[in-house]
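fyi for ur records
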Amino acid sequence: MIDYAAMERQLNAAHEPCFRAAPFPHYVWDSILPADALRAAADAYPDTAVMTAKPGIPRWHSQDRQLAGAALRDLCEVLLGDDLASFLSKVTGVEGLRTEPDGDWGSYRLAGHGAVHHAHVGSNQHPETGRLRRYSLFTYLTEGWRPEDGGWLELGEPVDGESPTRIMPSFNRSVLIETTSRSLHGVSLLRAPAPVLRRTITVHFWTDPAADGAA
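which gave:
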């Protein structure tokens, strides 16, 4: 399902490179998944009543893939597959990247008008296995997203209230960010009118702690 040839082309594009080193390593790919599969997955989200809500903020998430419809489950399984982890190991130069399909694999997320996720650095070491979370991949599923809808992924320490790097959550865009102790990231205020929801799948990629000692 993943168009690895398109990923390679975008990595090697001269006019707008997929890889950006600042403020910390990240990659931006567009249209590497079948649009119809993403539309079906977007329609297969469970009701927010069965997802975990953020108190006082219109944000919901779940790691329980059994709550999702078949198309969303299938897309999650593809993103959790060994082929993608192996490809990203080659791209990033980090050996041994793996996902945790039966553990802290990531989540599928929803956010509505007024939601915000302030800049933060997530924990990058698994409390039980000791594995290090090296990268996270965000895949965006809401069609027709506009710049004025907000909900931009923001990377880096804000300067005068503005983040140095802002990435629009366009439909069928996948963003891979390094997740170390310097990886400050957040999501700007979401202004899309109801009932529009920002739909995202997040997948984490881990290495064993002995691999290179990164933290």
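The chain has one domain: 4-207. thats all i got for now
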